[in-house]
Amino acid sequence: MRKSTLTFTQPARRVYTATKKAVQQCGQFKRIECNDQTFTITARHGMSLFSLGENVTIHVVATSTQETEVRIESASRNFLNFINGGANKKNVQSLEDYIRNEVYKLCSDEEIKLNKQ
User: Which of 41, 53, 94, 100 lies at 20 to 30 Å from 5 by C-alpha?
Assistant: First the structure.
């Protein structure tokens, strides 16, 4: 299992919208389910030579009115799958990149400048 947390200085709904779009457009996952009430996304990654597939869960959590955490968790679907060729790590790393890019796209230039100062 692999976990990661990203933090953004954006409202939770905006981050959730960007995260949902990133997961749907990255093309790596099947059976994507989004819960717009709880800001949760679940997806499945298919089987490969080294892995029987993984379940990915993403929680978008507002830590304040202008700060949001994205918690990503990737775990093997089969508990007997001890050697998965680093698939969970790859899932989390690629999702981090996709999500960062989508959140960045939703920010206006002024917001980006303010965050860099």
Answer: 53
Query: Contact at 8 Å (CB) between 77 and 31?
Result: no
Closest CA to 12 of 31, 36, 34, 32: 36
In whole angstroms, give the CA distance from residue 66 to residue 10: 5
Using alpha carbons, select from 92, 95, 102, 114 the residue that is nearest to residue 14: 102
Q: All domains of the chain, ordered by start, with CATH?
A: 2-108 (3.30.530.20)
**Sign (positive or negative) of CA dihedral 68, 23, 44, 90:** negative
pTM higher than 0.85, yes or no?
Answer: no
Percent of the chain with pLDDT strictly greater than 70: 75
